[in-house]
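My current task is to audit a protein record that another person submitted. I have pasted the whole thing underneath without changing anything:
***
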Amino acid sequence: FNDFNFLKKNKFQFEENIAILFFNTTCAICELEAEQLMDKMPNFVDLIFVSTEHKDTILNFANKFRLYHKPGFYFAQMDTLLIKEKYKPRGLPAYILYQNDLLIESGKGLISTNQLQQAFQLNIE
């Protein structure tokens, strides 16, 4: 994740399951996704929210949904051209899922905790 400009400058030790969520702070569906994930935080996956917007705008979004300091939630800024060339999202929101550093799924639209569980084949109560 060297291409990501994380808002927090800590060294991260990510879980084996990682969801990269491409979003925009003015996207209503992206807001809905953040609300749903906030209410039912999946503890089996690290969520990395990535936007091309200014870091202050991303930080305001993270704070609005009380996600900035929540464990497992990370926020990053990335150049638009780099996102389009390297990750090729087909619109916003979009997601890419990795398990043990291997791409297992990508898609367009919001993703729910249930979809994450199925993608990572987990039995969570």
Notes: The mean pLDDT is 87. Residues 15 and 46 are 6 Å apart (CA to CA). The helical segments are 28-39, 55-64, 80-87, 113-119.
